[in-house]
Design goal:
Two copies of one chain form a homodimer.
Chain A: H1 13-27, E1 31-32, H2 35-40, E2 55-58, H3 62-75, E3 79-82, E4 99-102, E5 109-113, E6 118-121, H4 127-134, E7 139-140, H5 151-157, H6 164-167, E8 174-180, E9 186-188, H7 202-206, E10 215-222, E11 224-225, E12 229-236, H8 240-252, E13 259-263, H9 265-275, E14 284-291, H10 293-309, E15 316-318, H11 321-332, H12 334-341, E16 346-347, E17 352-353, H13 359-372, E18 379-382, E19 387-390, E20 393-394, H14 399-418, H15 434-441, H16 443-455
Parallel strand pairs in A: 2-4, 3-4
Antiparallel strand pairs in A: 1-2, 5-6, 6-10, 7-11, 8-9, 8-10, 12-14, 12-15, 13-14, 13-18, 16-20, 17-19, 18-19
Helix pairs in contact in A: 1-3, 8-10, 8-13, 9-12, 13-14
Chain lengths: 467, 467
């Protein structure tokens, strides 16, 4: 499909054969060349075709990752880091073959410091496992991309999700990383201090680099106290536009929303069918507030007043933990709900993020395109950040429909860039958005390329992704 | 003095002469080679000796900066960006000569977007000028390093200051930058979207790079609504230790402190003398809360309870804008107050930042060193971030005293690094902390060097600083 950039340099057959041989001897059964394992490690959740690695190694320590990397460095063999395989943009594909390093056995939580509000852990810990571990201490890690992704993968893609409007993205919640670089060196990107002016921000350079500059093998993440009070609710609006405008107003008023999620009527229908919920199928906002009882009370009143101004219904408040979990579980399963809505179709995720002043305009022009092109494409979004996903559900064997979806996506990304936004708010570039990255960044793309060439001169770190 | 790294490659006399000639012709009176102008543009607020540039150009646009850079690129001539000259670490010195680009005529606020809570502006705008401009719109820019620095300089050093505990540092409050790179290209680091996963984080790479990777010529910064209620206060403690421990507890409890500043008894005496204030000369915390009336009320009550637990006095609350301004003005003038305390002395700024769990220990071991070595060194700090400044006031012609100050500072930085902290929380590296940067970052320093070599292969961008 024309949307993704799958091409790259040719395979280095001799180097790969030699490296696989060495690594098989070294890692024994933890180095697998079986077809099904290799298929699992190229599987992505997207329309992008699978490209298999030549071997998969289940690494257990930073030193092992460094050792594998040194072998691959010597023989110029690609390395593709692998977590839960929930990338939406082909991030774990192996276009030139090479070694997939599965990091899911590196799943230890090494130290929780309640005093410093941070945790030191390995990249294979998932966000749900971390929060399970933290619960007794009254702490949590807020970033929540929906999927129960590995935290290493979330760092690598600069993930965010529903809570980012309040707690920031992975960019804001990583204190320090341990990274294995292209020559097998081990680099600690920063100290554990809350802030620093000590040289270049290597931590932020690695966050979002999708394995193309180094492999993350240990992390220090910021934690937050579980709020005393959490209140969620649903508010229906007469139109997607009205819901966007209420969001803009809430953000402008400085309401510290913990979550503010847009769903259009079609998305609500998909969700009701899949998750057996019974929300009115009208455009709505799923919202949540965190704080002390008094401050949550203030916030909910302020929001209700804003919603009313834009024609919103009175808000259905949800306070019990059980009901709240059900509501957000339904939200998290949105991707599966969409796919179930049109059996046999493939959902093509888009990830536009614009300055919030442009949100209503960007969403409504996109929805107009969807209608004009006769596509089926639910809308869902983290609208407090100006980020929304319009996902055409496409029968991939219908060339005409595929072409119409391409047109819609092309126009969406160009519109987003023209409005001062980005083609990817949280999914990452992978193979799927390389062309748009070039359009979005212009001369900045050349700077990214220079950094990539400097830190990975042989282009072995997850080649064919990002730049 | 041994603390700073002043050495570097030799001067490129021919290249400099040629470039100065070309630039004088091009910029006329805006290119000055007069001694006093050159002295002003190497003046730093520190013990580090001045090293003069060969010419100073007052630039007026991104295109002019690019033009100057292309000339310097061709002739391999150093470029040193200059703002208000308030660097504490020799950031504006010209160890190999070259061209100082004064950016203070680029002082336009180009666009305020209240909807997007951001502002587009030039680097020569100072933080006070920006806040003056914003006041009528109910917005403010929170980062406040004390000095009325230029915002470009604050981006370049990743500045922070008193409000960072609540609002983050410059790292967290820059949306996008326009940067002129070493070959004279103009790069926009990011879109105006609130979040992005579009490739490497060029914005964060430039924030804190101190002019060594590029010259910042335009910026988009994040704004915040002026809080409905602001309440400040002062609370005395029986010891510095007790004040640190109260801070740790307040942070752990998730109290959203807007400011929490430690002053030791000596610092309070300096301040009272200089600013004609009358605070009790005991260790104390200057605190501030932002929010709605109800939430500020909750916060002040919670803090009072914590302070009491650690032997703090009842808090002297300050609500009137006038009194509050006086209190924080005194805090901001701390550096001048220290110098006035010992006429003829030079204050050597230190900038340790440790995980907050280590704060009390790090401060008390440092104070013990100060006493053992017979130094005079007030303590002041942004303790909510684990960041504190112990500044020996040194008679620089007393070799023995200088040596004792060096010993104290060396031990402080090594202690800080050993405790998982950083040698510079907010001042930057400049010439003063290069040696400690190497110690702190180890293999990470080599990665910084590789980035520097890739983006500035001829080492013309503020050479002799940071890496």
């Amino acid at each position: 499909m024309a949307l993704a950039d799958l091409d790259d340099a040719a395979r280095n057959e001799d180097g790969i054969a030699t490296a696989v041989n060495i690594l098989k001897q070294r890692f024994g059964e933890r180095c697998s060349t079986g077809q099904s394992i290799r298929e699992q490690h190229s599987h992505t959740m997207t329309y992008i075709p699978a490209q298999l690695p030549d071997a998969v190694i289940f690494a257990q320590s930073t030193e092992e990752v460094a050792e594998i990397t040194r072998v691959c460095h010597e023989h110029h063999v690609p390395i593709i880091p692998f977590g839960t395989g929930t990338s939406l943009e082909g991030g774990v594909n192996a276009p030139n073959g090479g070694i997939s390093i599965d990091l899911m056995q590196m799943d230890k939580i090494l130290e929780v410091s309640a005093e410093d509000l941070d945790v030191t852990l390995q990249p294979g810990v998932t966000r749900e496992a971390l929060n399970e571990h933290l619960r007794d201490q009254g702490l949590f890690f807020p970033i929540d991309p929906g999927a129960n992704a590995s935290l290493g993968g979330m760092v690598a893609t600069r993930a965010s999700g529903t809570n980012a409007v309040r707690y920031g993205t992975m960019r804001d919640n990583v204190v320090s990383l341990t990274v294995v670089t292209a020559d097998g060196s081990i680099v600690k990107t920063a100290s554990r201090a809350r802030k620093s002016s000590a040289g270049y921000d290597l931590t932020r350079l690695m966050v979002g680099s999708e394995g193309t500059l180094g492999i993350i093998t240990e992390m220090v993440l910021r934690l937050h106290g579980i709020p005393e009070t959490i209140t969620s609710g649903v508010c229906q609006f007469p139109s997607v536009d009205a819901a966007c405008n209420a969001t803009i107003m809430a953000m402008q008023c400085g309401l510290p929303m913990a979550r503010i999620e847009l769903l259009d009527a079609l998305m609500v229908r998909c969700m009701n069918d899949y998750s057996k919920t019974s929300f009115a199928d009208r455009p709505c906002l799923f919202i949540e507030f965190h704080g002390t009882p008094a401050s949550v009370d203030e916030q909910t009143q302020s929001f209700a007043a804003i919603a009313e101004e834009f024609g919103g219904t009175s808000i259905d408040w949800v306070s019990s933990t059980e009901e709240r979990s059900k509501m957000w579980k339904a939200r998290h399963d949105a991707y599966y709900a969409m796919l179930a809505h049109r059996p046999g179709s493939q959902g093509i995720a888009t990830d536009a993020c614009v300055p919030i002043s442009k949100l209503a305009e960007c969403v409504s022009e996109t929805v107009a395109d969807v209608e004009r092109l006769g596509l089926i494409a639910p809308v869902i979004g983290h609208v407090g950040d100006g980020n929304f996903h319009v996902s055409p559900l496409v029968m991939m064997d219908d060339a005409d429909e595929v072409a119409r979806a391409e047109e819609m996506i092309e126009r969406l990304n160009l519109r987003t860039i023209a409005m001062g936004g980005t083609c990817t708010g949280e999914h990452g570039v992978g193979q799927g958005k390389r062309r748009f990255l070039r359009l979005e960044h212009g001369t900045g793309h050349a700077m990214m390329r220079a950094i990539k060439d400097a830190l990975d001169p042989n282009n072995i770190m997850n080649p064919g992704k990002v730049v």
